[in-house]
Amino acid sequence: VHLIESTPHEEAFQGGEHEPPVVLLHGAAYSSFTWKNLGTLDMLSRAGVKAYALDLPGYGKTPIIKHFDAPEDRAQFLQKVIEKLELERPPILVAPSMSGTYALPFVIQHSDKLSGLFLVAPVGVHKHKAELRKLLWDRSHGELPATILYGGKDPKKESDMTPLSAALPGAEKVVFGDGKHPAYLDDPHRFHILLVALVERVAIARKKSVAQGKEALAQQAADATQVMQQGAAGGQEGEPTTEMKEAAQLLHDSLVSIASAEVQEEKDEEAQQAGLQAEGEQMAQQVQQEVAKEMGTEVVEEGVGESHNYTRTCRGLNES
User: Fold this and answer.
1) Considering only CA atoms, which of 197, 39, 57, 4 is closest in space to residue 116?
2) Looking at residue 300, what is its pLDDT?
3) What is the pTM (predicted TM-score) of this model?
C-alpha cells in the first residue's frame, strides 16, 4: 500500500503530538497525490497534525487486489492499514466519494477505532444506512464527531444527505452552494477550515473525556477508601478480608491512574503555553517589522517559521 506521510511542522501551534492524526482516502478519479497537490497535507502539517494520504487498491501506486469487492474485505483492509500505522490514538478518517465504499463498512464494524469522520459525498450511503444508524446511535463511548460535506450541484445531495444526517445526528452538515460532487476541490480553503475545525472538536472532546475519566477514578478511589475504613471500624482482626484486599488494590490503581492523567495534563498545558509564547514572539516581530518598514529600515527575522501565521489564520476564520 502506497501512502504519503505528513508530519507536524516543528513550530506548529500547541504542539502537533497532542492533535489526533488524520487518514485521507480519495475518490475514483484521484489518488494520494490529490491531497498533496491541493495543499491539504501541508496545511495539516502547519496546523500541528500528523496525516497519512493513502492510495486505495488499484489507484495511484497501490496495486489491484483481486476479489476485493465485499464490504467486509474493504473494512478489513482499512483496519489492517490503520493497525500498521501504529498511531498513538484513533485517527480522523476523511472519505470522499468512492472511498465511502471503504469508510462506511469500516465505521459500521470499527467505529470505536476512529476519533472523527469527515465524509464528502460518500458512495454507498443507501446500501449501509440502516447499519450506520443502528451502530452510530449505539456507540457506547459517545457520539462520533463528524462533518458531512456535499456540493450544491451534486445530484446525490438530496437523496444521500438525509439518511447520513439521521445516522450522524451530531455531525456538522455543510453544503458548498456552487460545489459539484468533489466539493472540496471547488473551495479548498473552506474545506481546510472545516477539516481543522473537526480536528479541534475531536481534541476538545478528548479532553472532556479525560476529565470525566478522572472523576470516575476519583469516585472509585473514594469508594475503595470507604470499604477499607468500614472494615477497620468493624474491628476485624487477623488477615485482611478479600473485600479489603480488592478495595486496597482498586484504591492503588485509581490513584496511579489519576496521577498519570494529571502528569499528561501538565505536559499538554506546557506544550500549549510554549505555542502561545512562540506565537506572541512572532506577533511582536511582525509589529517590529511594520514599524521598521515605515521608518525605512530593515529587520531580519530570527528563527520564526511561517507555521504560526498559517495556523492562526485557520483558527481565526474558524472562530468567525
Assistant:
1) 197
2) 35
3) 0.66
